[in-house]
């Protein structure tokens, strides 16, 4: 996945260089970059989120966290219910109750979209036998349908179905949801704070920049195996 993340990072640098604003709202850039990485590494979508903000995936991914409010606790609670809805509640139950109750708080439209997207990526990967570097595609060879699994490999534990012959589609979709929920806000906020610290401590910024140049190649890039040499950055 490293080349995929590199491509997103190059876009991030390009967008930073292209802005004429001073000062800039760095959160807008770190949020776009983080979503770009998640879309590419989890779902295999090359969207350039940092430039294109109206793609269906972006709209639903943001809804997955709940509408941002001044109360961070409320936003986190909405995100928590969305994850439970996506991971634990079967689609047919969500659709049934959606006929009578407004399920928008639980993210009905969003969870259905993410499920369809995950199914599509899985089906395309299995049909084309294509080896891609995103999470869902890499799981394609390990996915099994419970109806095709040897009964001896299936067991029930605490109401959950387990199989020793591979992953179920629900397993893959649940982990894809965790990619978004665990990675988006945390990574974007960490990067935002990092850039703030670099701005107020230019001496440390210069030292860090010099240490990276010592490891980077002539094109300014660091191969994956050389990242461990960036001890000061770590």
UniProtKB/TrEMBL annotation:
Its cofactor is heme. It comes from Bugula neritina. Belongs to the cytochrome P450 family. SUPFAM superfamilies: Cytochrome P450. Keywords: Heme, Iron, Metal-binding, Monooxygenase, Oxidoreductase. This is CYP3A4. InterPro entries: Cyt_P450, Cyt_P450_sf, Insect_CytP450_Detox. One of its GO terms (molecular function) is heme binding. It comes from the Eukaryota.
